[in-house]
């Protein structure tokens, strides 16, 4: 299956897949029970036109996967919106897309810090293999435009209750000027993976349970602060 999939930089002509991509993003988030910032087909098409996205297709033209680049003043870059068609999940294509969008980011913005927010252990593993390290939210861009993108996420209330210091997502960062060799990060992640998995489940359970209690009682949110990396 892998040899039949073409992964390349998207072009304006790929806008025909934009609605399919955004529909699957929303469906996937709903199935996981976690939130993502919503993207419109127009926004995805814009990223394609700007040469800031990667698309995966079969040789016959069926859509397989997608990811795009966000930038903030050239200093910070995010590889966002990674999504794979249900028919091609667990095939290794997500890793290939992440590798290509990471390469594209390094080509376009060689001095920028590349970061991501994720609720999934699989994405954390891929990021670790590329050289990303888990970080606190304070190490991400302070740009209000980035945080405004979280407003459409179902977990935005949690994020703001923690003054943007924590949420269900885990923050990961690649700093081109200061990073651990990917081989070391990969080995460390594999060693600590069971711990990360338990912490992710605990984090989601405690946040969502406390949020439900506060909503039912009408009290002001006072969520338990749980930092994944400490």
List keywords for this structure.
single chain, 230 residues, alpha+beta, Aminopeptidase, seven-stranded mixed β-sheet, 42% helix, 19% strand, globular, disordered C terminus, GNAT family N-acetyltransferase, GNAT_dom, Acyl_CoA_acyltransferase
Topology readout:
Elements: E1 5-9, H1 18-32, H2 41-49, E2 53-58, E3 63-72, E4 76-84, H3 93-108, E5 113-118, H4 121-130, E6 133-135, H5 144-148, H6 156-161, E7 170-174, H7 182-217
Parallel strand pairs: 4-5
Antiparallel strand pairs: 1-2, 2-3, 3-4, 5-7, 6-7
Helix pairs in contact: 1-2, 3-4, 4-7
Protein name: GNAT family N-acetyltransferase
Domain N-acetyltransferase: 5-165
InterPro entries: Acyl_CoA_acyltransferase, GNAT_dom
Could you walk me through the main structural features you see in this protein, from its secondary elements to its overall organization?
Helix 3 (93-108) links the parallel strand 4 and strand 5. This protein is 42% helix and 19% strand. The chain is globular and about 45 Å long. It has helices at 18-32, 41-49, 93-108, 121-130, 144-148, 156-161, 182-217; strands at 5-9, 53-58, 63-72, 76-84, 113-118, 133-135, 170-174. By secondary structure, it is α+β, with helices and mostly antiparallel strands. The model is unreliable at 215-230 (pLDDT under 50). The chain has 7 helices and 7 strands, in the order βααβββαβαβααβα. The protein has a 7-stranded mixed β-sheet, with helices on both faces. The chain has one domain: Aminopeptidase (3-Layer(aba) Sandwich), CATH 3.40.630.30.
């Amino acid at each position: 299956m892998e040899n039949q999939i073409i992964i390349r930089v998207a072009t304006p002509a790929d806008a025909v897949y934009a609605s399919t991509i955004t529909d699957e993003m929303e469906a996937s988030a709903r199935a996981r029970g976690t939130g993502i910032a919503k993207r419109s087909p127009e926004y995805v098409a814009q990223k394609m036109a700007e040469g800031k996205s990667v698309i995966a297709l079969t040789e016959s033209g069926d859509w397989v996967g997608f990811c795009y680049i966000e930038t903030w003043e050239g200093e910070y870059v995010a590889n966002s919106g990674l999504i794979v068609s249900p028919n091609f999940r667990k095939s290794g294509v997500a890793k290939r897309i992440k590798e290509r969008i990471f390469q594209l980011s390094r080509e376009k913005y060689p001095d920028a810090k590349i970061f991501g927010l994720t609720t999934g252990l699989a994405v954390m593993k891929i990021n670790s293999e590329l050289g990303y390290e888990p970080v606190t939210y304070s190490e991400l861009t302070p740009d209000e435009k980035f945080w405004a993108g979280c407003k459409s996420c179902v977990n935005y209330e949690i994020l703001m209750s923690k003054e943007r210091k924590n949420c269900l997502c885990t923050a990961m960062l690649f700093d081109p000027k200061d990073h651990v060799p990917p081989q070391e990060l990969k080995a460390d992640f594999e060693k600590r993976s069971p711990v990360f998995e338990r912490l992710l489940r605990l984090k989601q359970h405690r946040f969502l349970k406390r949020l439900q209690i506060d909503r039912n009682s009408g009290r002001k949110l006072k969520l338990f602060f749980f930092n994944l990396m400490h």
